[in-house]
Amino acid sequence: MTEQKPVTETTAKAVPVLPDAQTITEVKHYTDSLFSFRVTRPASLRFRSGEFVMIGLMGDPDPKTGKQRPLLRAYSIASPSWDEEMEFYSIKVQDGPLTSKLQHVKVGNQIILKPKPVGTLVHDALLPGKRLYFFSTGTGFAPFASLLREPQTYEDYDEIIMTHTCREVDELTYGRDLIEGLKTDELLNEVIGEGFWKKIKYYPTTTREESPKMGRITTLIENGELFSDLDIPAIDPATDRAMVCGSLAFNLDIKELMEKAGLKEGANSEPGEFVIEKAFVG
Ligand SMILES: Cc1cc2nc3c(=O)[nH]c(=O)nc-3n(C[C@H](O)[C@H](O)[C@H](O)COP(=O)(O)OP(=O)(O)OC[C@H]3O[C@@H](n4cnc5c(N)ncnc54)[C@H](O)[C@@H]3O)c2cc1C
Ligand SMILES: NC(=O)c1ccc[n+]([C@@H]2O[C@H](COP(=O)([O-])OP(=O)(O)OC[C@H]3O[C@@H](n4cnc5c(N)ncnc54)[C@H](OP(=O)(O)O)[C@@H]3O)[C@@H](O)[C@H]2O)c1
Question: What positions does the domain FAD-binding FR-type occupy (predicted)?
Answer without folding.
Answer: 17-124
